[in-house]
Amino acid sequence: MFRRIPLLLLLAACQTRSSVPTQSQAIPPTTSPASMSHGEAKVDNPAVPLGRAADAPPRSTIRAHQIRLRSVHVAHLVAPGVVFEAWTFDSTVPGPVVRVTVGDTVHFTLINGAPIPHSMDFHAAELAPSRAYVNVMPKDSIHFSFVARVPGVFMYHCGTAPAALHIASGMYGALIVDPVIPRPPAREFVLVQSEFYFAPTHDSAGPRSLGWQKMLDLAPDYVVFNGVYAQYAAHPIPVEPGELIRFYVVDAGPNRVSSFHVVGAIFQRVFVDGNGPPQLGVQTVSVPVGGGMIFETRLAEPGLYPFVSHSFADATKGAVGVLRAGNPAGSASH
Ligand SMILES: [Cu+2]
Question: Mind listing the pLDDT tens digit for each residue in 227-285?
C-alpha cells in the first residue's frame, strides 16, 4: 500500500507535465501574417485590443509638477484572451507617461494600494536611493521631490528587490524631459518595450501569473510595445509621408535589448538617452535595458512601414507595430 501511493503520485505528475507545452515542441509557423517585410503580425486586426494610443503627451506648461501614482495589482490584457496578473502604477502597463521640461520640479508621491511593498526609481532624477527609492509598505506612502536637470527620455520603475520580479510584473513607465529650447515640431510617439513571462498553467484561458524560471532563463512569452502584443500592427499609427516623426523609446526589459528599426526608413537623427549630439543616418540602434533614445525619421512615400525590435524572436513575440503613411493603395485607412 505504501509503495502504491508514491507511484500514483508520480504518474499524476508525469501526466501533468506532459500537458504543458515546451519550447522543443514549438514549430515555426508556415504563413506570413502580413504581406510585407517584417509583417510579423496581422495589420488592421480588431481582435487585438488597443491598450493606449502611442501619441506623446504635449510639452509641459508648468514648472512644478505634482505627480501622484498608486501601486496596484490588476488584471492586464496582454493579447486576445491572455490576461496577466500585473503589478502596476495607476492600473496600467506601462504606467502613465510623464512629461516635464529641464528645470521643472517634480513633487512625487507614491501611494501603495497593493498588498506587498513597492517603490519608485526615476532614472531622470539624481537622488540618494537609500533616501527616496525605498520600499513603501502596503497602505503607506512616500513623498520626494527632484529637479529634472538633464533632457531626454528616461525609464521609471519599481526598484523593490527582486527588481526583475517587479519590472516583469509591469511596474515601469517613461518620463520625457524636454530641453528648454523645444525640439523641432514633429508627430511624437512614446514606445515602452517590455517582456512578459508566464508560469506554466493548465488553464490557458485563466489569468497568467509570472514565470520566475522563464524570467531567469530570458525566455519571454511576449515582447511588446506599450504593454500589448502587436497593438500598433493591429491598429496602425496614421502619419503623413514626409512629416517629421519622433519616437521616444524606453526599454523597460527586464532583460531584452530593443534593436529599434523602422522598415523602409533611415533614422535622420538618434539621440542616445535623448541628449547630446545625435547619431546621423542610422538604420538600427539598440536601446539598452533601462535606457531610452529619441529617434527621428521621415517616410518617403505613402505606405505601411513596420517598426520592430530587429531582434527577431522578439518581433515574433509582439515587438512590432506599423506606421500608415497617408492612404496607401489597397490599404484600409483610419
Ligand atoms: Cu514593486
Answer: 999 999 999 999 999 999 999 999 999 999 999 999 999 999 999 988 889 999 999 98
How far, in Å, is the centroid of ligand 1 from the Cα of 93?
Answer: 13
* Ligand 1 centre distance from Cα of residue 153 (Å): 21
Task: Check whether 64 has a pLDDT greater than 50.
Answer: yes
DSSP 278: P
Beta bridge partners of 247: 189, 295
How far away, in angstroms, is 178 Cα from ligand 1 center? 27
Domain ranges of the chain: 64-180, 188-325
pTM of the model: 0.89
Task: Measure the CA–CA gap between 89 and 99, rounded to whole angstroms.
Answer: 16
Decide whether 64-180 matches 188-325 in CATH topology.
yes
| Ligand 1 centroid from CA 216, angstroms | 18
Q: Is the pLDDT of residue 178 over 50?
A: yes
Q: Does domain 64-180 have CATH number 2.60.40.420?
A: yes
User: Which of 29, 36, 30, 90 lies closest to 236, judged by CA?
Assistant: 36
> How far is the centre of ligand 1, averaged over its atoms, from the C-alpha of 92 (Å)?
13
Q: Which three cell numbers stand for residue 30?
A: 508556415
Length of the chain equals 334
Distance 134 CA to ligand 1 centre (A): 11
pLDDT at 136: 97
CATH architecture of the domain covering 188-325? Sandwich (2.60)
Decide: helix, strand or coil at residue 213: helix
- Kindly give the distance from the C-alpha atom of residue 160 to the centroid of ligand 1, in angstroms, as a whole number: 5
CA of 131 to the centre of ligand 1 (A): 17
CA-CA distance, 232 to 172, in Å (whole number)? Answer: 20
Average pLDDT in the chain: 90
Residue-wise DSSP of 241-293: TTS-EEEEEEEEESSPPEEEEETT--EEEEEETT-SSPEEEESEEEEPTT-EE
pLDDT tens figures, 98-139? 999 999 999 999 999 999 999 999 999 999 999 999 999 999
| Closest of 204, 202, 199, 198 to residue 17, by C-alpha | 202
- Find out whether 251 and 302 touch, Cβ atoms under 8 Å: no
